[in-house]
Amino acid sequence: MKSFSSDAQAAIVERYPSHFRPDWWSRAKITIGLGTAVALFLFGIAQLDIPFHRLSDGMARLGGFLRLMLPPDPGSWAEALKYLNALGETVSIAFLGTLGGALLALPVALLAARNVVANRIVHFFSRRSLDTIRGVDILIWALIWVGVVGLGPFAGILAVICSDFGTFGKLFSEAIEAADKNPAEGVRSAGGNHLHGVRFGLLPQVFPILLSQVLYYFESNTRSATIIGIVGAGGIGLQLAEQIRVLEWQKVSFLILLILIAVSAIDWISGKLRFAIIGRRAVA
Amino acid sequence: MLVVEGLTCRFGTKAAVDNASFSIQPGSFVGVIGRSGAGKSTLLRMINRLAEPSEGRILFEGVDVTALRGKDLRQWRARSAMIFQQFNLVGRLDVLTNVLMGRLAAVPSWRSLAQLWPERDKAIAMSALEQFDMASIAAQRADQLSGGQQQRVAIARALVQEPDIILADEPIASLDPRNTRVVMDALLRINKHFGITVVCNLHSLDLARSYCDRLIGMASGRIVFDGAPVALTDRIARELYDLEANEVMDATPALAPGGSAVPALGTVAAA
Amino acid sequence: MGRSRDLPIPALEKSMRTAVPEFPEARLQELADRYADAVAAKRRRVWLGSAVLIAAALAAGWMGDVDFRKFAENFWRFPAYFASIAPTFSFSSAWNDLSEWLWGLPRWTLLLGDTLLIAYMGTLSGAICGFVLCFLASANLVRSRTIVFVTRRLLEFCRTVPDIVFALIFVLAFGLGPLPGVLAIAIHTTGALGKQFAEVVENIDNKPIEGVAASGGSWIQIVRFGAVPQVLSNFVSYALLRFEINVRGAAVMGFVGAGGIGQDLIEAVRKFYYSDVSAILLLIIVTVMLFDFITERVRHRLLGLEGTGA
């Protein structure tokens, strides 16, 4: 190899010309793909009228906010207690919302799973209605429920239930459809009817998966539950939005810190539980 | 010349390689033998610096390899090409690109990262593939090839690194007997034709005796034998392999007289 | 059971007797007891779990002001709300009603376009940042524990703070408009995708990485040739999913003044422009579903391609 001459190079190039010709087609594909992405981004800058001159000013102001945030400080013990209470509300909203959403979603997910209900029309409508519910952001649900049951965490719980109902319905039905069909076939071959097959052949194998998904969403719902307070649906978000509006940056950072700690704790617990339920592999 | 002085590698309290010292003349074909877990793999990986030595030095032509950092370290890795038991190709990339990985240290970074390889480097890679009758599959994805083909791609990759020394870590352990021959012959050809030093970890004593002109025997991290294949008597071999001795020596009756049949097997090496 | 009646019963009974041996009563009892013991532990665990769950639910219910009476008393408002936002249609003037209902369509379409652009720009910049950071957060590629730890905490921070909270703060720093929305989504996406990407990278096959390293590749080359080919299709799939989520998120950015259609929606809700609420909601839902559909198609094609090895 050391003595690789230009003659040898020319000979190789002549023998395998296809490997040495630049591959215009794939290069064009990459260029067009990247070009479109960049062009769309630039179009966005123009269309949204992104003010670049405000970017540097804003960054400076943001830096100022950050400096004012340190150290995090709730102000007084009474305030701290109030915030902890709000955090408890948020966790409760997430917990009951997740639980309620999962319980409501399970029957609908069964209807929406092709291997449980073979009827195309039922399948289509349950899927579409789940999609519709999923299309509405949790903040919008919170707005609606605040109108129904008034301000407070209860509206938040109902909002999380609604938003999770759509998400779990879709996730559950997909998990059920992905299940191994042999056990259900075995139950039916032993003389069980279709429902027996679902109950003994299908549910036992998907149940741990569903449970792990629910636990996973508990953490993500805690994060969502922190924001629905912004529209008055209780929890820590209400305090956070208020303190941001009145520029109490030390309290803001204290609240964010509380949220970070709570979410990490729940993440850790739900991870442990998921590990206990389905073992290492599925957690990863 | 490669000189290893008091090389030690500890994982926790256990020494995988314990105070290994030897030197290897340029152009030789050295087999490292011993039971699985004897430290052969760690020894080779330390020479390439994939594993960090805890103590001791590795000198190549007077340069302390163990002290190299950054660009110099990468240059050394290119000069001491590794061949792995599991081939370690990038399955999603095509064969030619995999061979071009051997040129990474020689090609400017921006060219390799943008996949704009110089024509000369591509030609070197193609000619390496051609030597192993694989030019026709240069555009295939590496994970679509058989084990034997993948290992030959890996050897081509090692070859285009223009190495001074090839470190082969159990190169044939995942291959069938036919591909074992093909791969070992390829290593031998590289050794004899280009004069590149080959250090090869082998589990099979038989292969080691027939291909290598010097054997280093390891047991629990220590070097317990160093000499010509003829000097490795059955008694030493049994000590070396301990409980695995029957597996590597007497498992197949045809190989049983391995110790005394050196000349006959030598013809294989010459082929 | 109904089916077994069709079979000749004597024959069935006879075969049962030969197939399943009959044990004496004492032996049967012993087997049943042993089975009961074996499942008792599991049953106890299930009971304990249920008890904990119910206790937690009660505590959370107390904490969260759950009031079923209030719920029952006011539940009629829920359908009533939907009834009140539903547009009025009559057969004779359906076309007029429709055009009246969607009177703001040109403006809303424009705002929806803005919303999509906010989601796109946020997702793209977030995905790029996440792509760069994820390799630094992967313990199998970075030796320094410190770098891995710091990058991970940074990603976690970006992911845990909801995008709308970032938007609230950014609106104060950058002023009203889409810019804070884009930045908020970008930062949240960096965290969310960075974490997911890092998990993918940590699960890749280590052999190609070793192969490239042993050939003398630098860290960037190791990432470029050893890691990226293994993860790229997964990354794109995750990024598309995130785009889908961000479209939803961008639709409510306007609630806090960070651009897009949310501004009009919250105004309609606050000022009780009922028919506007339903019109905007419908437009949002249709758009979100459309993009769900498109991204799902693309993802399936992507994963399908992967399967065939192209």
Task: Explain how this protein is built.
The complex is a heterotrimer of chains A (284), B (271) and C (310). Chain A has 284 residues and is mainly α. Chain A folds into two domains: 22-52; 77-283, MetI-like fold (Orthogonal Bundle). Helices cover 81% and strands 0% of the residues of chain A. Chain A has helices spanning 6-15, 17-20, 24-47, 52-69, 77-112, 120-135, 138-149, 153-177, 182-189, 194-225, 236-245, 249-283. In chain A, helix 5 (77-112) runs parallel beside helix 8 (153-177) and helix 7 packs across helix 8. Chain A is flat and about 85 Å long. The two termini of chain A are 45 Å apart. Chain B has eleven helices and ten strands. The longest helix of chain B is centred in the C-terminal third of the chain and has 18 residues, at 177-194. In chain B, a hairpin with a 2-residue loop joins strand 9 (214-219) and strand 10 (222-227). By secondary structure, chain B is α/β, with parallel strands linked by helices. Helix content of chain B is 39%, strand content 23%. The model of chain B is unreliable at 251-271 (pLDDT under 50). Chain B has one domain (2-88, 163-270): Rossmann fold (3-Layer(aba) Sandwich). Chain C has 310 residues and is mainly alpha-helical. Chain C folds into two domains: 9-63; 108-308, Orthogonal Bundle (MetI-like fold). Helices cover 80% and strands 0% of the residues of chain C. Chain C is built from 13 helices and no strands. Chain C has helices spanning 9-19, 25-63, 68-74, 77-85, 94-101, 105-136, 145-160, 163-174, 178-202, 206-214, 219-253, 262-270, 274-308. In chain C, helix 6 runs parallel beside helix 9 and helix 9 (178-202) crosses helix 11. Chain C is extended. Chains in contact: A-B, A-C, B-C. Chains A and C meet through helix 3, helix 4, helix 5, helix 6 and helix 7 of A and helix 2, helix 3, helix 4, helix 6 and helix 7 of C.
Summarize the structure.
Chain A has helices spanning 6-15, 17-20, 24-47, 52-69, 77-112, 120-135, 138-149, 153-177, 182-189, 194-225, 236-245, 249-283.
The tally of structural domains of chain B comes to 1
Say what oligomer this is: heterotrimer
Assign a percent range to the helix content of chain A: over 70%
Strand coverage percent of chain A? under 5%
CATH architecture of the largest domain in chain A: Orthogonal Bundle
What is the CATH topology of the largest domain in chain A?
A: MetI-like fold
Which structural class is indicated by helix and strand composition of chain A? mainly alpha
**CATH H-level homologous superfamily name of the largest domain in chain A:** MetI-like
Briefly note the CATH topology name of chain B: Rossmann fold
* Shape estimate of chain B: globular
**Helix proportion of chain B:** 25-40%
**Radius of gyration computed on alpha carbons of chain A:** 27 Å
What is the CATH C level class of chain B, in words? Alpha Beta
DSSP strand (E) fraction of chain B? Answer: 15-25%
* Low confidence ranges of chain A: none
Largest sheet: number of strands, sense, barrel closure of chain B: 6 strands, mixed
